[in-house]
Amino acid sequence: MSDARSNSIPLVPDGNLDRVVLLDGDHRWTVADVLASAHQLQESLGALPGPVKHLVNLAGRRDQFLVGLVAGILGAQVSLMPSTRSRGAIRDLLADHPDTVILHDGDQPLESTLAACAPQVAIPPLRPTRSPVSYTHLRAHETVLDLVCRLLL
Q1: What is the bridge-based pairing of β-strands 54-57 and 100-105?
Q2: DSSP bridge pairs for 66
Q3: What is the pTM of this model?
Q4: pLDDT digits (tens, 9 = 90+) for 29-71
Q5: What distance in Å separates the CA atoms of residue 24 and residue 74, rounded to the nearest whole number?
Q6: Average pLDDT rounded to a whole number, residues 23-27
Q7: pLDDT by residue (tens digit) across 136-148?
Q8: Who contacts 10 (Cβ-Cβ below 8 Å, separation ≥6)?
Q9: Is-contact 110 104, C-beta < 8 A?
Q10: If you average pLDDT over every residue of the chain, what do you get?
């Protein structure tokens, strides 16, 4: 398949890295944030001995699941989807695909019986890729409408 989109960033055909893709409470995660964490995860996977061809993503948090999925896309790894999260279903997948790594939430260690079955890597949390901006910087770009809104607050 060859078209204009084949050279773009996967899942970002418009190339806008500042586009918000996740809203989580007060956090607004951009494409750049997700890609930065996914690249960090790919670096951890690349440091493992031997090739990593398959991933089992056991992240309980949806944002970390997304990071694991995007990392697999970037690394050309196949995401294996167990029929359930039971030890038996996961062990069956690992037996059929010995070159598999288990991805999990970094703040929740894997169950010891699963940890012994395959290499495991914690998915890094999402972090903002941009630094906070000072109040002075914001004021420098303030419009008349912003000023009116700020004064009404």
Answers
A1: parallel
A2: none
A3: 0.75
A4: 999 999 999 999 999 999 999 899 999 999 988 899 999 999 9
A5: 24
A6: 83
A7: 655 555 565 555 5
A8: 70, 73, 74
A9: yes
A10: 81
Write the CA distances from 106 to 64, 77, 122, 131, integer angstroms: 9, 20, 4, 23
Q: Token pair 């069956």 is at which residue?
A: 92
Lookup: tokens for 124? 């890094």
Q: What percent of the chain has pLDDT over 70?
A: 77
Amino acid at 98: P
CB 127 within 8 A of CB 106: no
Q: Write the DSSP assignment of the chain as a string of letters.
A: --SGGGGSBTTBTT--TT-EEEEETTEEEEHHHHHHHHHHHHHHHHTSSS---EEEE--SSHHHHHHHHHHHHHTTPEEE--SSSSHHHHHHHHHH-TTEEEEEETTSPPPHHHHTTS-EEEEPPP--SSPPPPHHHHHHT--HHHHHHHHH-
